[in-house]
Amino acid sequence: MSDIGMILDRIGRKLVTEVAPKLEGDYSGGHAGMSGLMAVMAGEAWDGAADRLANEIAGLRGLLALAGETVSVAKSPSLKVSDLKTERDALARDLIEVQIVLEGRDDDAARDLNAKIWMHLMATSMARMPSAPEFPDAEE
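RE: above sequence
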């Protein structure tokens, strides 16, 4: 088995629907249920991590291009999440430097680009938010 997302989802759903309801005490059941929810959400995050990072990287490169910046950050050598994060983080550092300059300016072009940067930041933050998993009623 190599589908980590599926494995985490199955473990999480089993904990929430079958294990937690059978445990005595609020702490035990709550702990198992919370662990199950976290496993399902971790599986979802793992499944979409490379896609989210690729979208963030494309957005950052686009914003830097709009700012007229020459991007010296190399493209990731692989699709490994760790490599994509390294590329994304380096681009983000470059964009922070651009944004510092933009926020010190008082012209329409600076305000427009700064608004685009903030829209990108909000969109990427929202994309990282886990969705609330739906579970069937617990088995008695």
